[in-house]
Amino acid sequence: MSKISLIIQREYLTRIRKKSFIIMSVLGPLIFAAYVLIPMYFATLEDKEEKTMVVIDDSKLFTEYGPEGPEFVIAGTEYLKFQVVEGVPIETFREGFDESGYYGILFIPSNILASESSLIYSTKQTSIEISEYLEHSMDSEIEHLKLAQHEIEDIERILAEVETSINVRNIKWTKDGKTQESNTGVIMGIGYLGGMMIFFFIFFFGSQVMRGVIEEKVSRIIEVIVSSVKPFQLMMGKIIGVGLTGLTQFLIWMILSAVLITGLKMAFFPELNRTPTEQVVASDLFEQGAGDQGTGIQGIVTPSEEIPEVGDLDMAQEIFASLKSINAGVMIGAFLFFFIFGYLLYAAMFAVIGSAVDNETDTQQLIFPVILPLILGMYVMISAISNPDNSLAFWFSIIPFTSPVVMMVRIPFGVPWWQVALSASLLVGTFLGMTWVAGKAYRTGILMYGKKASYKEIWKWLRYSS
Amino acid sequence: MNLITASAVVKDFSGHRALNQVSMEVPEGSVYGLLGPNGAGKTTLLRIINQITAPDQGSIHFNGQPIGPDHRPMIGYLPEERGLYKKMKVGEQALYLARLKGLSKHEAMLRLKVWFQKFEIGAWWDKKVEELSKGMAQKVQFITTVLHEPKLLIFDEPFSGFDPINVNLIKQEILQMKEQGATIIFSTHNMASVEELCDHITLINESEVVLQGKMSAIREKYRANKYLVSFQGNPEKLSKGLDPRFELLKLEENGMGRQATIRINEGEGSGKLIRNLVEITEIKSFQEILPGMNDIFIQVVNDTIQKKGS
Fold first, then answer.
1. Cβ distance of B81 and A223 shorter than 8 Å
2. Residue of B nearest to A5 (CA)
3. What CATH architecture does domain A51-146 belong to?
């Protein structure tokens, strides 16, 4: 057996037998899902605390007088109640406002029609949901009032009739003659997920390579090993061994996730299995439009067999339909390619850092210039999600140090093949060059004990003969 | 036949010359001592022979051929900075290191069993290295150095950090391997072990060879013509009766009895001294004081410092 494969074997086996590997393999998908889902959950979390908003309506446009006194025309929500107060100046609430238990004071000036603004006084920052709810409700209230001034007969019925809500959905004609529905959000999500995974993979397993090199230096085994094999073989063996560990972990994650997703699908969306997504559209929307005024919408869009069911916009259904629309082969192929070569490029640099120090705490300042492009790539990736074809995203998906992360988010949207080829060949070329350079620095660094090298010193190492 | 020939080796590190025109010939089957103070360049030379680093100028030949990757399995190296993977099991690790040296798994296994038994560490096969005592880890390191029965064994400061029992064990093993035909190079500043083991030495100081040759020839060269005489009788009579051609350096009385250290001036034989002594005292024993390597080492290093200074 060749020496490099012995090294790969050792690196691989000692790592996958670690408890931490097994734990990460099981928890990884859960942690990753939590990482993605928890912020989403928090963002959508409704404020469950009941709040009372005092309303001072100088315009009198929003006050109705019922049996129980003045009432705000805008209905409260489950957690937001309104209480109209008359003849009290705002300043009287100021003293001891926090103890009063009120959330805020909505002040509607008498000239609201002209000024188009109202004010909320509070000691707290008003939440966006409440502001938006008030703005939206007051808008429509005033719109109604203004319309009423025109004294059009049957205005309410006409309004109800003209009210339209258009839902734009993407139907893609693929090259092989199929029609697919895709949701931009889902495609974005896939790209984002791919890019993020590459980012974490490079970062996590690159650091493992670095730690492995430091371990060999600290334990002083390094010199024994390099008397048997070339330093370059040791470095490459370690990089490949750790990379295989990563791929194994990734594979386990994929399998676990597939099981998890299938399980969730079966448990929560059983109808997805019964009704295929390619169903005849019998849209309520179209029928209504056609029935009511005969606007001829039917003539424009003929419901066809291929268009998936619109019906009630079932999120889950749309997501699974979109997942189908992405070319899984291309996606997985591209992912693996950028995953592997991105890792290889960075792992060599991490190996050099490991060789230049004597303990992990010394790595901090050396590591920064290395991961800077990676972090930059992640930021560009996030901006590229909403605009995958702008020039920033283009260039960063070509530059080798950022391309693994940025290209991933562009690929699901479709990227010209020459761009992918250019990016891929630049990445491979840079990887080869970087590994060659890294090998030179590495073989000097591993034999330097007791001092922390600077980049200036590493530069000198490159010129020592081997 | 020389197993290793180093010719005019030069190695530079940024702004510092670690080796300057170092040449060395290691005869096959010899125990070769590489001596010198810390930082003299010993480890750098050993690393070059091990192909861990390459010389900037000069060359190394192994058995007459320019040294190359094919020679790696024929060398066993115990570096000064030595260690093991702490988290790995002892046996697994020994097996791994042996296979890196080109032994088959089966062969390595057989040999390891023998060595582990010999060194009485068989029970530790499945333990992690971090559970071993330092002395036991040293045994494992030694085994992995010699397991593939290399033609050339290189030990860098083999006795530093080893406990006395292991030092003895290793000395015995080194001599045994020499008997089996191996060539051994070791670097040290432990001069006692040099006297005991080495046939040839090279003394390096400040990156340059300052003394080189057969042990016996070097000791001959540096002999100081001093003799130690144990005697019975009046010390005063001895000092007064001594011929002026002989110089009495020291006269003392200790647990061994009365002893005199006498130097013979250049050109005189020891026979004349004996004849002189017989007349003035009763000799119990008479022996030449050969210079210790330690003295030679200090003398040569001081000489070179003076030369450079002047």
1. yes
2. B100
3. 3-Layer(aba) Sandwich (3.40)
More confident residue, A414 or A466: A414
Residue predicted with more confidence, B160 or A271: B160
- ipTM, interface predicted TM-score of the complex: 0.80
Q: Which residues of A touch B141 (CB under 8 A)?
A: 224
The residue extents of the domains of chain A are 51-146, 179-275+321-461
**Average confidence score pLDDT of chain A:** 78
pLDDT mean across residues, chain B? 87
Structural tokens at position B293: 């390597």
Q: Does the distance separating the beta carbons of B84 and A229 come in below 8 Å? A: no
Sequence ranges of chain B with CATH classification 3.40.50.300: 2-220
The closest of A27, A3, A442 to A241, measured between CA atoms, is: A3
**Per-residue pLDDT at A46 exceeds 70:** no
Are B39 and B63 in contact by the 8 Å Cβ rule? The answer is: no
Name which of B100, B141, B145, B155 to mutate to probe chain A: the one with the most chain A Cβ atoms within 10 A of its Cβ.
B100
pLDDT tens digits, residue range A8-31? 999 999 999 988 888 888 887 777
Q: Average the pLDDT over B201-217 and give the result.
A: 89
**CB nearest B79 (choices: A215, A224, A457):** A224
Q: Which amino acid is at B22?
A: V
The answer to whether A227 touches B72, Cβ cutoff 8 Å, is yes
Work out the burial of residue A268: count CB atoms within 10 Å of its CB; fewer than 13 is exposed, 13-18 middle, 19 or more buried: exposed
Scan residues 425-444 of A and list those with Cβ closer than 8 Å to B. 443-444
H or E stretch at A148 = helix A128-149
Of A317, A307, A299, A300, nearest to A282 by C-alpha is A307
Which of A18, A214, A223 to substitute to test the interface with B, most B CBs within 10 Å?
Answer: A223
Q: Which residues of B touch A (CB under 8 A)?
A: 13-14, 47, 50-56, 69, 72, 75, 77-79, 81-88, 96-97, 99-101, 141, 144-145
**Over pLDDT 70: what percentage of chain A?**
77
Q: For residues A125 and A128, what is the distance between their CA atoms, to the nearest angstrom?
A: 9
Give the H/E segment covering residue B254: strand B246-254
Assess A448–B contact: CB distance below 8 Å, yes or no.
Answer: no
Structure tokens given for A405: 């992360």
Positions of CATH 3.30.70.100 in chain B:
224-289
Of the candidates A221, A222, A228, the beta carbon closest to that of B72 is on: A228
What class is the B224-289 domain? alpha beta
φ, ψ at B14 (rounded to 5°)? -40, 105
Residue B58, number of CB atoms within 10 A of its CB: 16
State the pairing for strand pair B208-214/B200-205: antiparallel
A299-334 exposure pattern, b = at least 16 Cβ within 10 A, e = fewer: eeeeeeebbbbbeeebeebbebbbbbbbbeeebeeb
Superfamily of domain B2-220: P-loop containing nucleotide triphosphate hydrolases (3.40.50.300)
Q: Do B79 and A230 count as a contact with CB atoms less than 8 A apart?
A: no
Edge-to-edge strands, sheet with B183-188: B75-78, B152-156, B183-188, B31-35, B200-205, B208-214
| pLDDT exceeds 50 at position B246 | yes
A221 and B77 within 8 Å at the Cβ level: the answer is no
CB-based contact A219 B77, cutoff 8 Å: no
